[in-house]
Design a protein that fits this description.
By secondary structure, the chain is an alpha+beta fold. It contains 5 helices and 13 strands. The longest helix has 12 residues, at 82-93. It starts with 10 loop residues before the first helix and ends in an 8-residue tail after the last strand.
Length: 323
Amino acid sequence: MSQPPSHSSSPQLAAQLAAFEGRPAVVGGVGKDPVNEPMIRHWCEALGDSSPAYVGPDAVAPATMLQVWTMGGLSGHSSRSEAYEELLALLDDAGCTSVVATDCEQEYLRPLRPGDRVAFDSVVESVVGPKTTKLGTGYFVTTRMDVRVDGEPVGTHRFRILKYAPSRAPGASRAPETPTGRELAATRPRPVVNRDNAGFWDGVGRRQLLIQRCLECRALRFPWLPGCNACGSGDWDTVEACGDGTVFSYVVMHHPPFPAFDPPYAVGLIELVEGVRIISNVIGVPYDKVRIGMPVRLEFVRYEDGQPELPVFRGDLPGGVGG
């Protein structure tokens, strides 16, 4: 069965969608559970984070759990606004019936502690499109959630989805495609640089891989954070990684086949000799030859003109045979 025609890229639709910017998405939301120790423990166990900051009488919740306390679970929240429902229905009617989460950004104003009960409101910050992707043509919808405890702002969570019209019907055959250089340049995403990680990307621009170091307890940390996840101090400097490491874990990416990339390829969790871990591509060896414990060495690669160089890691097969 073929897809019905879609007007997902019409100028009239774009104008209708733009009118939703600034309108509420969630009004008067309240967390279903207070910040609590069991959920903090489960989170830390899943991530392997044994920081003492998250246990004991003075415990705080990991900052990145900010969204957790606002989630509605399987039953959802009853506080989603009519305006947001209208926005999603308008996109559905235009053929943008599929959705994928693309990214999120968070800002933290103060730590959350067990017993805190969060409240939140959310606004439609932007609707951008139409954008044509490998998945199909659609719109990026960004909402900004402002989180409070007892009326005091504690953080902001921006969440972005792509609502799109699938590019082909399920089961339809796919014609072979060879993306051109121009298509690659148009679709490859750029790194998100913000005030918390700008120093890291400045280092990459100098072909340095910089690791944060707490000035209080001297613990190294990666990825970059505004405060120490061991002692909570906000004072830090950096050390430059020597570039040697091993593959701690890895996955082979097969899907989705975005035009800017060439799956299958290996993405590794690299343990640096300094003791921290970084996620990056493993190059120089066939994707199916990557193994846990494989030695790797830092390189900087620019994949496209006009894009920044990226830190990647070249693998070393037994006997010194690389790709």
